[in-house]
Amino acid sequence: MNTFSALMRLVFVLSLALYIQGCTCPQPQIDSINPSSGPAGTIVEVTFTGGGLGGVVVFDGVAQETRFASNLGLGHILRFTIPYGATTGSKSVQVSSSGQTSPAVAFQVTGPGNVPTPALDAFEVATREGKEITVFGSGFSTVSKVFIDGVEVQRYGGSSQPLREIPFDFVDNIIICTPASDLLSGSAHTVQVRNPNNLNSNTLNITIPSRVCEMELDALTGVPIPNYYVLRNNTINTLRRSYNACGWIIELSYNDTAVADPQAGAVFTNADLYSFWQANANVPANETYMHGAFLTAHQDGILGIMFMNTGSVPSLPNVERRLGYAAFRNAFGANQREERYLRTTIHEAGHGFNLLHSDGDGSTTIMNQTGSLANNWTHNFSNVSCTHLRSHTLNAVRPGGEAFGSSRSCNNLH
Amino acid sequence: MKTSQRSAAIALFLIFSIAMATITNGAFEIHLTAEKAEFKLGEPVVVLVSLTNKGSEPVNISPELGPEADFLQYLITDPDGKETPFSPAFVADRADFITLGKDETATGTARIFYGGNGYSFPKPGKYSIVARYKDSRSTPFEIRVLAPANEAEREQARMILDHTEVGLFLMLEGGDELADAKKQIDALIAKHPTSILTHYVRYAVAKNLSVPARNFVSKKPRSANLPRAIEILQGLKDKDFQFYYQSKANSTLASSLAKLNRNDDARKVLQDFRKKLEGMEKLRPYYLKHINDQLDKMK
């Protein structure tokens, strides 16, 4: 995890250095602009080739505050907001990269537009270092400013974390930024977003989680890991967000997302799962850890399983309880597939944190059995689940601790 | 019906009549029982559970009542009086459910002999088992684990109970990479071929062979060995061990035969077992549906 994160940061820095210094690159060319018309305040995505790593959008001859979709795209997908105050008519859009400027393409400004009032509803932090925070809500744009404890913080172009490209559809719902100082475990802060015309969001009071779990994700070739961001009920959901809300930082790592399947097409038996875990889990010393596997199909047609609860097996590490889970992609039909795939992932990991089905509220929350869900289900933990995650002794909660169901007798800890 | 079968049926009926534990507490009435009240040391304990909706409204419940569904929870009190929640070896999540109307009953089985705390019945003595769902609890259901009658039985038990990998193999019904389990199981089968404990491990070995194994550990995947699985399972047909395992053995035998296009033989296996169940009034709710479903699929 930390190695990968450091590598990504290095790529980011190198990219930035190349961008600043310029290179002997071909002239940038805009491939697409989306949308190509709209009122002032429209968020526009520009994709280009050539140039260097990253760039700045020039609108109507003026350089704009520009965001990258992701550092993984090495800056070739840029986003900007049509300036409020832009006059109606056709305007030029160019990309400036490595000291060169692309030919212009047209954007049709259709009206003055209204500045939305931003709203905040949640946050997440990616690692225990507290160097990055993501805020969720609505009414954001590329020119929105973020304030933590009243101090404006730097917005990322993308993210230093892997596989976290912000989908364009969610660009008004998600902002990733770097706090002025590290957000330490257990510390309390206020967060606010400000749009032009001094339109402020509500103030979000946050406490940085103090419990940390490294989570390694592996997948068979051709089986996707759940989308990082999933929209449901007008809310952006992530695995991290669900656990952050209940006191845990989940440090995700994407270790091997193309594990070869020696028997492609065959369903997985429980014995197959067990061997997959043994072969692919890289259990660190002295860290709370869990392994997630994303596989094709289980012999019993189940959605997911938390399967590492075997006590002490001599051929394996002694602390192997609740250390692994799997989700089976083929068990999810087309209806709400991505929403349910992420839900099952959070749910199975929940068992790894010693959460029971009976922790659920019976209809909407994560730990309910899938069959009992009402239509308005969410990716949130129930209060009972949250109390367990946040407050019970670490050994009763953390993966690798007590056996599943231990210390949870009749939920009498609540 | 042969005299021995009739005797067995009567014995089973008597055991059920005496041993069934029932209580209505909360929304559900939960009954626990087992096919027998006494188990050999090291023998896999499977309990039979029924759940009746005593509330006023229909409820959606898991179609599986075993501990792996994390719907019912099982508590085991050992001979020293220590109560431990049974921790399943895995928790499986399904999308389907069944709706249980008012006063309707669902039935299921629960393998509770090995899990997250190792073996649940590691020494001789009296154990009691309770199943619960939130505020609903069964009354304690008691079983007795018998002390080995001789050195041979002691050795058989130790070959299982001293080796947690064997418990894991029995729960997973496979695990090619579990070297110690294989060593112990091979030795048990070789040294004690007629032991009742051997019947259970032979079923697990056959079940493992009936399906391919990926074995990511050794990176030596294995194809199913259907002829060998069939040979082992046919050898278990006349053996006297828990019907739960007899049912699974016959089901696996039939599916293995069907994969070899021996559909008539497969149907006969299931039909013969269904006939055997006819004399087991109390067991039929637990096993008959699965057999009938499998037969229907073969039509």
Structure description:
The complex is a heterodimer of chains A (414) and B (299). Chain A is α+β, with helices and mostly antiparallel strands. Chain A has three domains: 108 residues, Immunoglobulins (Immunoglobulin-like); 89 residues, Immunoglobulins (Immunoglobulin-like, Sandwich), CATH 2.60.40; 198 residues, 3-Layer(aba) Sandwich (Collagenase (Catalytic Domain)). Chain A contains six helices and 25 strands. In chain A, the strands form five sheets. In chain A, strands 11, 12, 13, 14, 15, 16, 17 and 18 form an eight-stranded antiparallel β-sheet that branches. In chain A, strands 2, 4, 5, 8, 9 and 10 form a six-stranded mixed β-sheet that branches. The longest helix of chain A is centred in the N-terminal third of the chain and has 20 residues. The radius of gyration of chain A is 23 Å and the shape is globular. The two termini of chain A are 34 Å apart. The N terminus and C terminus of chain A are likely disordered. Chain B is α+β, with helices and mostly antiparallel strands and 299 residues long. Chain B folds into two domains: 144 residues, Immunoglobulin-like; 147 residues, Serine Threonine Protein Phosphatase 5, Tetratricopeptide repeat, CATH 1.25.40. In chain B, helix 3 crosses helix 4, helix 6 runs antiparallel to helix 7 and helix 7 runs parallel beside helix 9. The longest helix of chain B is centred in the first third of the chain and has 17 residues. The radius of gyration of chain B is 19 Å and the shape is globular. About 7% of the residues of chain B have low confidence. At the A-B interface, helix 3, strand 24 and helix 4 of A face strand 8 and helix 3 of B.
